[in-house]
Amino acid sequence: MPAVFSVDMTTPVTDASAPAPIPSPGPEDHAGRRSTATLTRRLYDEAMRPYLGRIVLALILMGVTAAAQGATAWLMEPVVDWVFAQKSSTLLWPVALAVLATFAIKGTAEYFQSAVMSDVGLRIIADLQQRLFRHLMTLDAGFFGRISSGNLVSRFMVDINQMRNGVSNAITGMGKDTMTVVALVIVMFYQDWMLALLAFFVFPVAIYPIVRLGRRMRKVTINTQEQMGALNTVLEQSFQGIRMVKSYGLQGHEEAKVHALSEEIYRLTLKGSNTRALSSPIMETLGGAAVTVVIIYGGYRVIADTTTTGAFFSFITALLMAYQPMKNLARLNTNLQEGLAGAQRLFDLLDTRTRIVEAPQATPLQVTGGAVSFRDVRFSYEDGTEALSGVTLEIAAGQTVALVGPSGAGKTTILNMIPRFHDVSSGIIEIDGQDVRDVTLTSLRAATALVSQEVVLFDDTVRANIAFGKPGASQAEIEQAARMAAAHDFICALPEGYDTVVGQRGMKLSGGQRQRLAIARALLKNAPILLLDEATSALDTESERQVQSALETLMAGRTTLVIAHRLSTVVHADVIHVIDSGRVVESGTHDQLLALGGAYAHLYALQFAAEQSAVPEGR
């Protein structure tokens, strides 16, 4: 069986001619766009509903905790009136044991409620992270040019955790704290309904400022998360490009960027902390007013013998015990808005739709020979810049066709159109007479194999990186691919051979070694159409000769599209197309194009002159 090439789907292939992509409106452009009710409902439907049973169990346990709190406050009346006022030794032990039992029940219920909510919260995080990753894998290559990887990592780590904390606090607040307050209020009304009304008349005043604080908190949280995403991007770029940073002496420049972002995050985080803390003085002041009213009015009632000391102490105990859960409820909207800020950014990302979609009636691609046809293909970027201007060319089955031309001419864009990394703005691309837009993406990309000059290796072993081209490949297949790519010898010389970890992006290897591993990985896939984008550009002369020989063997009987800047590597191509400004300006064999004396002959003469001038004198 012939060796195979692998399409590397992890990194989009971009054309040097492509202008910087214009970012589409992202989640940061929609702050405040969605109402609290809409986000909460969607969060419940898409994240919490599967765990409704466990959430209900947690709420029941919260109810038990609340009942125990209320019982504790109620028990203050017999403690004061029967034990201390009447000095009844008969009731001392029963009342004391009842108090102990309420605390034990409360503690046990709180433990299990906390355990259940932790399980639900962590399960929601895992589910959403997996769902988000699956969704991102369906998006088109252009999306990853519009949003930074640091931003995406921030969505995975910061936003989802922020959402989980907000939701967990909100559920606890709506469950445990609300039920605790209700239980204690029942005790207060049972003891003295008029005193209870006086104690609570001040709290409705707090509703308006607390709602305003929640709105401000969501906006601050969204801005903070955006800046954290930007910081992640700068850190990632600085660490990955550390050699370039040092070689150009730009440490200070990078430090300044990190300093500016970290200062902005500090400012926003402090603003959020202060906003969150504003609920405390509101509740402290109102709580103090309520206690003052209770002491004055309740004191007069005890003095006038219209209520007992025990009933008053039971009332004041319930009021004081309700104080903390009421403070928590005052922070509930703020906590919820923090969580919804993360949910809003997450849902905005989940709502992003790929621009590369399969036709409703798409069928698997049937490759009979691998002929590729471009007919008046045009392609424009989002800002309207036209990258391809009516490209028409034919690649016959089994032919090797080369694309040459100046940088930025549109060569890689043409190559990207075949596996649909981009879609045509107009025109048709066919493989064996089948429009690539009418076939399934899986079958299309299985029929095409790409080797790019942009090498992507994973922080894993050499073996794993090669086997990425064919999951489940045997050691013999992996070694055969490495030999064909002139990589086996240097792999064996590594400290742990095929089990050597190559480091992030293969940084432990040289550029040529990384390229050969990428080619070996590609050689494990059996694809009838080969797309080679400067596949040997990072190799030394000897390695290039070995790899070129292997590629020539592999290309026999296959349709191959080659992009090359070194014209010496494509002189034997069946057809050479010269691309300039998104158009095919010349076509023919190497000899025909030289005889024509046009653009190709000019490019060839320039390269030949440059190579001659690079030869030292006397040789």
Write the layout of secondary structure elements.
Layout: H1 36-48, H2 52-74, H3 76-85, H4 89-136, H5 143-146, H6 149-191, H7 193-200, H8 207-240, H9 242-247, H10 251-277, H11 279-303, H12 309-350, E1 372-380, E2 386-395, E3 400-404, H13 411-417, E4 426-431, E5 434-435, H14 441-446, E6 448-452, H15 462-467, H16 475-484, H17 488-492, H18 511-522, E7 529-533, H19 541-555, E8 559-563, E9 575-580, E10 583-588, H20 590-596, H21 599-614
Parallel strand pairs: 3-8, 3-9, 6-7, 7-8
Antiparallel strand pairs: 1-2, 1-4, 4-5, 9-10
Arithmetic mean of pLDDT: 78
Strand content of the residues, in percent? 5-15%
Rg estimate, integer Å: 35 Å
Alpha-carbon distance between the two ends: 45 Å
Widest sheet, order of strands: 6-7-8-3-9-10
Largest sheet: 6 strands, mixed
Q: Care to count the β-strands?
A: 10
Which stretches are low in confidence, meaning pLDDT under 50 for 5 or more residues running? 1-32, 614-619
Q: Helix/strand/pairing class, anyone? A: alpha/beta
Assign an overall shape.
elongated
- Helix tally equals 21
Q: Helical proportion? A: 55-70%
